[in-house]
Amino acid sequence: MAIPPASEKPKRSASERFRDIWPEIWALVRPRRGLLAVGLVLMAVNRVAGLVLPFSTKYLIDDVLGQHKNEMLLPLLGAVLAATLIQGASSFTLTQLLSKAAQRLIAEMRMKVQAHIGRLPVTYYDANKSGVLVSRIMSDVEGIRNLIGTGLVEFAGGILTAILSLIVLMNISPKITIMALVVIVAFTGVLQRSFRRIRPIFKERGKIMGEVSGRLTESLGGVRVVKGYHAETREEAAFAKGVNRLLDNVTKSLTAISVMSLSASVLLGLVGAGVMYLGANEIFAGRLTLGGFVSFTTFLAFLVAPVFQVVGIGTQLTEAIAGLERTREVLQEAREDRDPGRVLDIPPINGHVAFEDVRFSYETDKEVLHGISFDSPPGSVTALVGPSGSGKSTVIGLVCAFHKPDSGVVRVDGLDLSQVRLNSYRPQLGVVLQETFLFDGTIRENVAFSRPGATEEQIMEACRIARVDEFATRFEKGYDTIVGERGVKLSGGQRQRVSIARAILADPRLLILDEATSSLDSESEAMIQEGLQFLMRGRTTFVIAHRLSTIRRASQILFIEDGRIIERGTHPELYALNGRYRELYDKQHGLEANLFLAPGEGDTVPVIAS
Fold this sequence. Notes:
With 610 residues, the protein is an alpha/beta fold. The protein is 60% helix and 10% strand. It has helices spanning 14-29, 33-50, 52-65, 73-118, 122-127, 130-138, 145-148, 150-172, 174-221, 223-228, 232-284, 290-331, 392-399, 422-425, 443-447, 456-465, 469-472, 492-506, 522-536, 571-577, 580-594, and strands at residues 353-363, 366-376, 381-385, 407-412, 415-416, 429-432, 510-514, 540-544, 556-561, 564-569. A six-stranded mixed β-sheet has the order 6-7-8-3-9-10, sandwiched between helices. Strands 2-1-4-5 form a four-stranded antiparallel β-sheet. Helix 19 links the parallel strand 7 and strand 8 (540-544). The longest helix has 53 residues, at 232-284. It is elongated and about 120 Å long.
């Protein structure tokens, strides 16, 4: 299932969204509640120590300076110095504890999201770009550190400081304090509206970032295609469009933050002017001393400062919750290995595969397979041929349990494949795809990927059968040669041979060959046919082939067109039938013959839809 755009989702209030996301927040906080408790205690000590300096100001001015009580000076200085040391030590410890805990949380969340995405069905990958998924794993969890790190504790610390300051201020001058509170409460309403506007902006930013990263990943991965078609300018334009969308989003958020900052500045000015006016009148009336007034203004700063702090930390927490919402969307996707319908463990299989009136569609009312039925006995070779888009890959996807039929049954050794647990079935599959994928590691590592516990002798034997040794030994580092991203340092034929060696090493019971020799020239193809024959021996094999010369010895050939099997049989039977298979076969051989003619010696080369 694709992640629906934000515009398609019903709008909900902030409180509703917070209630929905709270279980995830608590799940993160609960294992670390002890650490957070320690952090809160340290924060409380830190904030109380920070109030010693403004509290001592009144006694310094009124008693030490006003009444010349010199004996109070050293105790005051000692208290201030001790409080400063306590404040510094608690601040350092707080940062060390919570910052490191936050980074561990980020690492754990990335591993959790990656593990979950890795177990989602293939249809999810078909609907979401890889760059978007990378963003979900790497970027969306970054802001979550503020839920466990210093952000949340600083937020709580600001509130504690404000409460303590308010108590002191009410004792000094209730009249001035109430005036200041009225202005601050009014500003709180402005903040609430601003956060309501800014939260969707942050959430949309994550979506845009994923799309831009996805397109950039595709562009870099397909750099040869881009350069081959001289499309650099078009890719620059596409990337620039995405970056400008991101810029517009950031600009909107900066506007909202600027409004909050402006409001905070206005608040400070209003409170300051009010305090100056009322404070002067209170001093003239004898109800407030000069030291009390200075102390009041200092504590008032401690009351107003958290409001400014809310602007910064509140924005971070808003971004963190938005990232957690996006992460939650992924984690709520159903993993294919958690399918409650898959209750059977399949034993080592013989390889008897049967399709019984199978129908399948990727989208509602757009059926791709229409009542497919066939039987593949153990050890047989079933070849699927037909035009592009006819449904061949869909049949293979059903054999691999990437999808479930909408109706009908796919059976393996008599068991309904939709009821079989994937961890007991998939290890018995071997797949050699048309688009060979190699990891950015050594030749040896790529071959051993299918069987990590294989011995060196087993790896070398697989390489020999697939003729990997023909080119690997010519490299300076031999089998330790790095193949590059997607195997870019190897030729197409070399990559395919590594892929075949990987399948040989896996020793599968069911084998899928999706145009396994498509990347090979005639010489290379002939070189590894022996390896393929070895690989297919005694295994039930499914072959998708566009080059029909490669499947002439198949046990049965299924010609699929428009999601239906319109012809079936062996090569001689289908050729004698004089139908679609023969038509396609003759066209291919006519094309191959014309490829050797000089210009003008033959007719126009026919176009083959295969």
